[in-house]
Design a protein that fits this description.
This protein has 213 residues and is α/β, with parallel strands linked by helices. The protein contains six helices and seven strands. The chain has one domain: Rossmann fold (3-Layer(aba) Sandwich).
Length: 213
């Protein structure tokens, strides 16, 4: 009797950060995907350049001794709700499959300081992911969500929250969560997304607030 083959390791070859391109969106919660790509580029000592064919900024990362092949970093410049056009353009040009892409983006349902990796899933109301699913024709691609939390004041709208900038008190947590994101992405590329899920989905870099007695 032949043994059932194991599922192949899913290791991304294209890391995409979602955001909006105008300067007014820089460093906003909704653009934390862009910030993650900038952090990855800095750690991997590369720089992104705009390529009109891809409707975005892209960088190529050379393979290291323990990483197979090339890895690409991408920041779509199409605005959030058309991000999939840029992603599909890169996949087609480099002949990559949907499971070769990892999309990094903001999530209000996760608190600041947490990340969550998944191999597939719905858009969950995120316009950038809706566009990506529509363009790729599938939900089966890895994604890494970075928590931005919900507004502290109930009256504050979600739009103003996601388009607002992080407070000075939040900045150290953002710095630490971007480092956590880098570690999770690098682990995904070297060891596979499932290994990274096991290692990083329960990490929390935000300080623990003790409940009042």
């Amino acid at each position: 009797m032949s043994s059932r083959p194991k599922n192949p390791t899913i290791a991304p070859k294209l890391i995409v950060g979602l955001g909006n391109p105008e300067p007014k969106y820089d460093r906003t919660r909704h653009n934390i995907g862009f910030a993650a790509i900038d952090a990855l580029a800095q750690e991997w000592q590369t720089s992104l350049s705009e390529v009109k064919r891809f409707k975005g900024e892209i960088a190529e990362v050379r393979a290291s001794s323990d990483r197979d092949g090339k890895i690409y970093l991408l920041k779509p410049l199409t605005y959030m709700n058309r991000s999939g056009e840029s992603i599909q353009g890169v996949l087609s040009w480099y002949k990559l499959a949907p499971e070769d892409v990892m999309v990094v983006y903001d999530d209000m349902d996760l608190p600041l300081g947490r990340i969550r990796l998944r191999l597939s899933g719905s858009a969950g109301g995120h316009n950038g992911i809706k566009s990506t699913i529509a363009q790729l024709g599938t939900q089966k691609f890895p994604r890494l969500r970075i928590g931005i939390g919900r507004p502290r004041v109930r009256a504050a709208g979600s739009v103003s929250h996601v388009l607002g900038k992080f407070s000075p008190e939040e900045s150290p947590i953002v710095r630490d969560v971007l480092k956590l994101t880098f570690d999770a992405v690098e682990c995904s590329c070297k060891r596979g997304v499932e290994m990274a899920m096991n290692r990083y989905n329960n990490r929390n870099v935000a300080p623990v607030v003790e409940a009042s007695p």
